[in-house]
Amino acid sequence: MRGVSVRLRPFRPGLVLLGASLLCGCSILSAPAPDTFDLTAPKHAAVKGNGRAQILIAEPTALQAIDSDRILIRPGDGKVTYLPGAQWADRLPRLVQARLIQTFENAHRTGMVGRPEDKFTPDASLVTEIRDFQIQAASGPVAVVTIAARIVSQTSGRIIAANLFTASVPAAGLSGQQASAALDQALDQVLVGVMTWTVGKV
């Protein structure tokens, strides 16, 4: 009687890992992508004066809770959370910086405005801090935007002026569209205030 020859195939752990990865990938791909929202710059603002000062606009600083691409919600009692399924088009400080520059450009009341990496010689720097940029959900809900601004002389490094700008706009609800629209309206008011004040100081 002849023996039966059995040929064993080598075990390939890589195939098992690949299969597991594909299964994980399927679960990740099935998760819906968050809705992405942008902010806008006011196109028409009544501004007195027509200075030619060149202004450097630095990226705003902010606490970690604000310095992200997530839409901040404050439900009350000191709690901080974020709106699920929604995000900004970029990190909030970068987005606010871009819209602030556009606000100055749209007003046509100063000379060159730009970022620190732009090649120009500014007369002054506009340094800002985002202190509030959230939906207050405890009562409302209400969009609140607060920006602290300082104008710094580029030659002496001294602070020429400082001011605080804030705006509140009722939100129609807590969906991504409703929250982002209310925050955009509040920011619009603050940007006009910052730009008008800066033009009057430089």
UniProtKB/TrEMBL annotation:
Residues of the ABC-type transport auxiliary lipoprotein component domain: 39-191
Q: Which Gene3D superfamilies match?
A: ABC-type transport auxiliary lipoprotein component
Query: Key word Phosphoprotein present in the record?
Result: no
- Pfam assignment, any one: ABC_trans_aux
Keywords per UniProt: Signal
InterPro entries the UniProt entry points to: ABC_trans_aux (IPR005586)
In Swiss-Prot or TrEMBL terms, this protein is called: Cholesterol transport system auxiliary component
Organism annotation: Labrys monachus
